[in-house]
């Protein structure tokens, strides 16, 4: 199995961004396969939609959030082999030219190790702050993917669509990975899963240990995704899966390790991104947590 970890980004760890390089080096040396960022542009005081699209509250742990692009760049410069991913960036919030430039820069710094993961988010206030239409977020993501693909593969390049327009411009700086970094997509709904099947290089589902773990549902979703991919003329084996594992506060390491092993047994998913932000407060605690979990899962320093 490949085990990755969230970079120090939220809550108390957001105030230790000077330690991101230390974390990245230590966790890579311990045998981690990947390092990840999430995305939170703001946490509304009175949210119309709550965390994950449920209720009307947002955990206080998300109030402080460091910039995901900067963290990926720091981790890219500090490491040599780990994959560097986003699980997920709320891509429709960003102007596509700037998004392409930031991700291209990270991919070149890392020598082609970037795995960009996108989602549409759930916060109307984040879209309001970015001047974007929350109700069109899915359509905006579709068009952004078209524009991003063009920017990464053509020079000169332009894009003209109903929601996004990019004038003809020079675009000689391309990502290190050819033809482009493999865009993965977060998806739980049918519409989002169909988008993965149609055009994603990978699927980014999630679970929460121990409060929301359903390996059978993950297996069923993947089976349906594969069928839709075949209907679109794609080979399902070309679509990767990376499961985000959020950890509830107070959860033992052995419970997390057992959940990962069980999901792997039932679904065949072999790449996991672990985020213990509700369980650890400091970067030192996060490094220790990663080392101990990798040891429980018998992942050594050779990866």
Automatic annotation (TrEMBL):
Start and end residues of each Luciferase-like domain: 4-250
InterPro entries linked to this entry: Lucif-like_OxRdtase_Rv2161c, Luciferase-like_dom, Luciferase-like_sf, SsuD_RutA_monooxygenase
Biological process, per Gene Ontology: alkanesulfonate catabolic process
Molecular functions per Gene Ontology: alkanesulfonate monooxygenase activity
Pfam family, one: Bac_luciferase
SUPFAM superfamilies registered for this protein in UniProt: Bacterial luciferase-like (SSF51679)
Keywords: Flavoprotein, FMN, Monooxygenase, Oxidoreductase
EC code(s) of this entry: 1.-.-.-
Organism superkingdom: Bacteria
Name of the molecule in the record: TIGR03619 family F420-dependent LLM class oxidoreductase
Organism: Streptomyces tuirus
């Amino acid at each position: 199995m490949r085990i990755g970890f969230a970079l120090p980004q939220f809550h108390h760890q957001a105030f230790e961004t000077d330690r991101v390089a230390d974390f990245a080096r230590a966790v890579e040396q311990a045998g981690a396969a990947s390092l990840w960022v999430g995305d939170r542009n703001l946490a509304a005081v009175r949210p119309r939609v709550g965390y994950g699209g449920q209720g009307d509250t947002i955990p206080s742990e998300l109030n402080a959030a460091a910039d995901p692009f900067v963290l990926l760049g720091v981790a890219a410069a500090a490491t040599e082999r780990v994959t560097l991913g986003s699980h997920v960036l709320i891509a429709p919030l960003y102007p596509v030219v700037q998004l392409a430039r930031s991700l291209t820069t990270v991919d070149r710094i890392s020598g082609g190790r970037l795995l960009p993961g996108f989602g549409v988010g759930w916060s109307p206030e984040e879209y309001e702050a970015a001047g974007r239409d929350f109700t069109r977020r899915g359509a905006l993501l579709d068009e952004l993917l078209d524009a991003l693909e063009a920017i990464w593969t053509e020079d000169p390049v332009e894009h003209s669509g109903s929601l996004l327009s990019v004038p003809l411009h020079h675009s000689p700086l391309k990502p290190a990975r050819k033809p482009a970094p493999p865009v993965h997509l977060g998806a739980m709904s049918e519409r989002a899963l169909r988008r993965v099947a149609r055009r994603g290089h990978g699927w980014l589902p999630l679970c929460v240990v121990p409060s929301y773990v359903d390996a059978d549902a993950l297996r069923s979703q993947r089976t349906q995704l594969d069928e839709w991919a075949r209907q679109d003329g794609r080979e399902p084996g070309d679509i990767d899966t990376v499961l985000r594992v959020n950890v509830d506060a107070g959860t033992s390491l052995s419970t997390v390790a057992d959940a990962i092993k069980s999901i792997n047994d039932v679904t065949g998913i072999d790449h996991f991104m672990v985020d213990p932000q509700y369980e650890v407060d400091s970067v030192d605690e996060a490094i220790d947590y990663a080392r101990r979990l990798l040891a429980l899962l018998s992942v050594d320093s050779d990866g």
